[in-house]
Amino acid sequence: QVQLVESGGGLVQPGGSLRLSCAASGSIFSINAMGWYRQAPGKQRELVATFTSGGRTNYADSVKGRFTISRDNAKNTVYLQMNSLKPEDTAVYYCNADISTYSRKTFDFWGQGTQVTVSS
Predict the structure, then answer these.
(1) Which of 47, 70, 81, 101 is 20 to 30 A removed from 58 (C-alpha atoms)?
(2) 56-109: per-residue pLDDT in tens?
(3) What is the C-alpha radius of gyration for the chain, rounded to an integer number of angstroms?
(4) Who contacts 55 (Cβ-Cβ below 8 Å, separation ≥6)?
(5) CA separation (Å) from 49 to 6, 106, 119?
């Protein structure tokens, strides 16, 4: 069994910063890809930033230059540093990971989500 546990969401004023964390635990043989998605009310879930299986990073155009994804492989943890936050960044942020377990099967896992609200 694998779990993704997110933390770091909250309420912040426009222009402020937040740092999200997502730690993966459980029967993990390898993490193939890992990153962040978000879903605003009434909208579809969208990619924010991810590490691909090749180790590259992908960012949504709307967050380029403001958000930075990083990771600590030893801790199976990925971070999202969000700067210059805007009201339109308000959403539930979900961690996602493509993980191979010790049974050598690959699954797509989601965290429970963490709310980010940008408002004055």
Answers:
(1) 101
(2) 999 999 999 999 999 999 999 999 999 999 999 999 999 999 999 988 899 999
(3) 14
(4) none
(5) 15, 21, 22
